[in-house]
Amino acid sequence: MPASEPVRLGRKRVLPACPNPLFLRWLTELRDEAREKGLKTQYTYQKALSSLNKYPLPLRNAKEAKILQNFGDGICKILDEKLQRYHQENGADAQIQSVSSAAPPAGRADNNSVAPSRKKNSAGDGGKDRAPDGKKKRREYVPQKRSGGHAVLLTLYRQSQIPDSKGFMFKLELQAEAQPLCDKSFTVPDLGSKYTAWTSVSTLIQKNLLIKTHNPARYSLTEEGLALAERLAAAERQTTEEEEEEEEGPGVVDLTGSDDGEGEEDRTHPTGSAAGQQSSDTDASCSSEKPQSSQTTSRHQGGGCLLPGTYEIILCVDFIETTGGSNHRKQELVKELQRNRVNFDIRKLNVGDFLWVAREKVTPVPGQLRVPAGRELVLDYIIERKRMDDLCGSIIDGRFREQKFRLKRCGLHRPVYLVEEHGTAASHLSLPEATLQQAIVNTQVVDGFFVKRVQDVRESAAYLTIMTRYLNKVYQNRTLSCRSRELEGDVCGAEEERGVPSCSLISFAEFNHGAVKNKCQTVREVFARQLMQISGLSGDKAAAILEHYSTPHR
């Protein structure tokens, strides 16, 4: 039986040093720097370090490292830049393989550890991320520049700095004001994604930077959010000042011309003054197109404005008017509108049956499947259509008074009742014809609605066609501005008194959202509904009572 081989006792074989200590040191510095900043690139640098440790051959430059795993163009470019600076400082013949100072050995645990260990708390790098009591420090949340959270914080901070500000902003108002400060849309998600810039608001609320109260929702800054927004605004001002200083630098001089003195002023173009002159020319041309009564427009710049020629008037038809019930009669309305070449759109309207919007004209973006959604502002006209049988039913079940009340509160100032006589059908209803006629007269005289009587669906379509053409002519050369529905009482100016349609309009999204029938109601609104159930108490009388007694408790 052969003798067994002697057991070798002693230390393990020392691993050879890395043949590329310079690259190893630079990658270690990059990893440690990313770790201190809390960046996820530290893991990328660590993977590159592990690959470099396993490579046994020397590298002459970073391009040769592309054959290694986890070495991309970005890391190779950074290493090449460091290598160029190293050659400039130490000479072109300096050896990069013989450098051994400050380069950790290949087998050191420092090169193989990705982040400070969760189980160990050494006095080295792991102690930097921990508080004196041993708990890990919580890194402060700061939204990225031009992101949704960044734009919302800046907008609320700027609004809070306005004297006599209300201290909060509504959702649609906040979205309109913050959109110019954000690269992503607050309403339309990117292609292939379901998230918008507004999604970041939930993060701000979770981080106790933003508070949401009331219904409709009101958004305001907390003390922590105000402090962070103030820092963001200061950084924004500093960046703007630096950019202005760069623009106001020395002029660009044409050195290709002759040496003669004449024309030197023409060849010197100060970039700052040129940009200022161009912007002033643009402002002057824009202001010349706007009407003189632009106080309302300037007061609501956040929503933007639609200049003449940049929008088209569209008739919006409630989908209930085209489906259900007598389908043949309802389809006849659509066919008549198509025959009259009316530009209309069928959609869900939470109040009224017909209205008109000014839709912004947009051009398709190359490379995108969908055309960007244009802004839509609701004109001041809204129509509620009633047949005699429908009018009778709505009076019996109480819908008639409720619909008039909601039309008055919808934010549009020119409601119209379109009543279809429908031949002799009124003589076969459960209410006397005199009662129906009296209800129509009360709607016009007492409630202040404009009542238009027609005979059938064809005349209704003709009236809608004429109204559409009339509105196209009225708004042909007018600049439209967007306002918030909450500021409704602030926009009634001289134009309204003269009978000219207002050019300060609310957006369709805000109008339809505010007209939801079964939305959450305040105590004041419920009290108003209760008062209107009393016989002889109209909406105006209920509103007068609410001015003195806003709730039943008072």
From TrEMBL:
<dbReference type="InterPro" id="IPR042530">
    <property type="entry name" value="EME1/EME2_C"/>
</dbReference>
<keyword id="KW-0227">DNA damage</keyword>
<protein>
    <recommendedName>
        <fullName>Crossover junction endonuclease MUS81</fullName>
        <ecNumber>3.1.22.-</ecNumber>
    </recommendedName>
</protein>
<dbReference type="GO" id="GO:0000712">
    <property type="term" value="P:resolution of meiotic recombination intermediates"/>
</dbReference>
<keyword id="KW-0234">DNA repair</keyword>
<keyword id="KW-0460">Magnesium</keyword>
<dbReference type="GO" id="GO:0048257">
    <property type="term" value="F:3'-flap endonuclease activity"/>
</dbReference>
<keyword id="KW-0233">DNA recombination</keyword>
<dbReference type="InterPro" id="IPR006166">
    <property type="entry name" value="ERCC4_domain"/>
</dbReference>
<comment type="function">
    <text>Interacts with EME1 to form a DNA structure-specific endonuclease with substrate preference for branched DNA structures with a 5'-end at the branch nick. Typical substrates include 3'-flap structures, D-loops, replication forks and nicked Holliday junctions. May be required in mitosis for the processing of stalled or collapsed replication fork intermediates. May be required in meiosis for the repair of meiosis-specific double strand breaks subsequent to single-end invasion (SEI).</text>
</comment>
<dbReference type="Pfam" id="PF14716">
    <property type="entry name" value="HHH_8"/>
</dbReference>
<dbReference type="InterPro" id="IPR033309">
    <property type="entry name" value="Mus81"/>
</dbReference>
<dbReference type="InterPro" id="IPR047416">
    <property type="entry name" value="XPF_nuclease_Mus81"/>
</dbReference>
<feature type="region of interest" description="Disordered">
    <location>
        <begin position="233"/>
        <end position="302"/>
    </location>
</feature>
<feature type="domain" description="ERCC4">
    <location>
        <begin position="314"/>
        <end position="423"/>
    </location>
</feature>
<dbReference type="GO" id="GO:0046872">
    <property type="term" value="F:metal ion binding"/>
</dbReference>
<keyword id="KW-0540">Nuclease</keyword>
<keyword id="KW-0539">Nucleus</keyword>
<dbReference type="GO" id="GO:0000727">
    <property type="term" value="P:double-strand break repair via break-induced replication"/>
</dbReference>
<dbReference type="GO" id="GO:0006308">
    <property type="term" value="P:DNA catabolic process"/>
</dbReference>
<dbReference type="InterPro" id="IPR036388">
    <property type="entry name" value="WH-like_DNA-bd_sf"/>
</dbReference>
<feature type="region of interest" description="Disordered">
    <location>
        <begin position="90"/>
        <end position="145"/>
    </location>
</feature>
<keyword id="KW-0255">Endonuclease</keyword>
<dbReference type="Pfam" id="PF21136">
    <property type="entry name" value="WHD_MUS81"/>
</dbReference>
<dbReference type="Pfam" id="PF02732">
    <property type="entry name" value="ERCC4"/>
</dbReference>
<dbReference type="InterPro" id="IPR027421">
    <property type="entry name" value="DNA_pol_lamdba_lyase_dom_sf"/>
</dbReference>
<dbReference type="GO" id="GO:0008821">
    <property type="term" value="F:crossover junction DNA endonuclease activity"/>
</dbReference>
<dbReference type="GO" id="GO:0003677">
    <property type="term" value="F:DNA binding"/>
</dbReference>
<dbReference type="GO" id="GO:0048476">
    <property type="term" value="C:Holliday junction resolvase complex"/>
</dbReference>
<comment type="subunit">
    <text>Interacts with EME1.</text>
</comment>
<keyword id="KW-0479">Metal-binding</keyword>
<dbReference type="InterPro" id="IPR047417">
    <property type="entry name" value="WHD_MUS81"/>
</dbReference>
<comment type="similarity">
    <text>Belongs to the XPF family.</text>
</comment>
<dbReference type="GO" id="GO:0031573">
    <property type="term" value="P:mitotic intra-S DNA damage checkpoint signaling"/>
</dbReference>
<dbReference type="InterPro" id="IPR010996">
    <property type="entry name" value="HHH_MUS81"/>
</dbReference>
<keyword id="KW-0378">Hydrolase</keyword>
<feature type="compositionally biased region" description="Polar residues">
    <location>
        <begin position="270"/>
        <end position="300"/>
    </location>
</feature>
<dbReference type="GO" id="GO:0031297">
    <property type="term" value="P:replication fork processing"/>
</dbReference>
<dbReference type="InterPro" id="IPR011335">
    <property type="entry name" value="Restrct_endonuc-II-like"/>
</dbReference>
<dbReference type="GO" id="GO:0005634">
    <property type="term" value="C:nucleus"/>
</dbReference>
